[in-house]
Hints:
The chain is an all-beta fold. The chain has helices spanning 125-128, 197-200, and strands at 8-13, 22-28, 39-41, 53-54, 59-63, 70-78, 87-96, 99-102, 150-151, 155-157, 162-164, 167-169, 177-179, 184-186, 189-191, 201-203, 216-218, 242-244, 252-254, 258-265, 268-273, 278-287, 292-297, 303-313, 318-319, 328-332.
Amino acid sequence: MAPTGRVYIIYSGSGYWTTFYSLGQLKLVGDDPLSYDSWEKSPEPIFSKSDEVNGCGHASYTTSPDGKSLWICYHAYTGTNTQSGRFVFVEPYTVGSEGVIVGNGSGHPQPISTEMTIDVNPMPLAEKISGWDESTETPGSPEPLPDGVFATESISLKGSSQIIGNIGTNAVEAGSVDFSWSAEIEGDLWIGPDGDWTKVVTGARPDPAENVTGEIKPLPLAKEYLLPQFPGFPALEGKEDLVAGWQSEDSCVINESGAYGNIDVTNELTINVGDEDIEVVADNLSVTGSGRILVNRTGSGRLILYVIDGFELANNGKINPDGSYDDVFLYYAGG
């Protein structure tokens, strides 16, 4: 509640796994807070990504020890990457006639180089938490947990497949992780709690640890991940099957959204994306051989691929090989 008596709700919006994770605002304009019509939604986020910081939703609000200043604490990623760990940021905020104003009022995080003076509560943590047991404290920084791929059950890497990043599984059964000779994990491999990696991890090589550039170790606890909401597929203008192969006379380019039966890419398919999202629905999508889907992104839009039945990415096939992970979203229904 603002000093003026006005009531606001600040909420997190967009996917937490994207750069667009932001803060939105609702203002109570009616008498009944349980009525939909009593709330007015801000048309734009009140706090969203900058060039230096992204994914800045999920905030907590607090006051200085003397109660004279208001502060917002939030976690976010630096740069444009959402695959690395998040950092904790703090900025001052105020509440006025139009709602919550964070930082300098720009609607975006202040530059990381900004210096601010913050009064900190000097009370030791043990005195703030009832039942604190100092014997459970673990000195030093926590080890990095899986940040690339996580499987609740088994992992199988075939051919020359490679995963870059720390990956993990909750599995502890023998043979739950299996490698071909040339497969590789460029990072650490975490297995289920109390698992014996010499039994869990198998492969074509006599020593499957050679397939992992980092360490193989057990998770401290089994991990759970909430799956993102799977969207309904859009109804788009129907297009003919598309074949981007070596026999194609013309270069294959997509400039607009559309629904295809089959998309078969063994050469190059370029998809141009400007400020609007390009949505492509395909019954079957195949990118094989030396096929590449190149995303030419010149604006704020993204390529969103919806695959209904069959999806094949094999051999040296690549999607957006030289771009950013944030250029493409792919949803596979797996019919």
